[in-house]
Write a structure and sequence with these properties.
The protein has 119 residues and is an all-beta fold. Helix content is 0%, strand content 60%. The protein is built from no helices and eleven strands. The strands form two sheets. Strands 2, 4, 5, 6, 9, 10 and 11 form a seven-stranded mixed β-sheet that branches. A hairpin with a 2-residue loop joins strand 9 and strand 10. The protein is elongated, with a radius of gyration of 14 Å.
């Protein structure tokens, strides 16, 4: 069993910064990729940023240059530093951890943390 727990959401004014953190624990020792997804009101959950165990990253176009994802492989933690926040960054942020077992990927999700950016 795997637990994924996020922290760090909150309310911030436009132009401000927030840092989200996530820890994955349990029966999986290694996650190939970890990252963050966002679900805005009335929209589907979408990728914000992800990072592989080798350090490769990819970002949604809307956050490039403003957000930075990082991870600690030994601790199975991932963080998202969000700068120059905009109202359109508002949503529930979910941490995701992917484990590959054999030929199959298993996705594990946190419960989500609310980020609200006021204009």
């Amino acid at each position: 069993q795997v637990q994924v727990v996020e922290s760090g959401g909150g309310l911030v004014q436009a132009g401000g910064s927030l840092r989200l953190s996530c820890a994955a624990s349990g029966s999986i020792f290694r996650f190939n990729a970890m990252g963050w997804y966002r679900q805005a009101p009335g929209k589907q959950r979408a990728l914000v940023a992800r990072i592989t165990s080798g350090g490769s990253t990819n970002y949604a176009d809307s956050v490039k240059g403003r957000f930075t994802v990082s991870r600690d492989n030994a601790k199975n933690t991932v963080s998202l530093q969000m700068n120059s926040l905009k109202p359109e960054d508002t949503g529930v942020y979910y941490c995701n951890a992917v484990s590959t077992q054999g030929a199959r990927d298993y996705n594990y999700w946190g419960q989500g943390t609310q980020v609200t950016v006021s204009s």
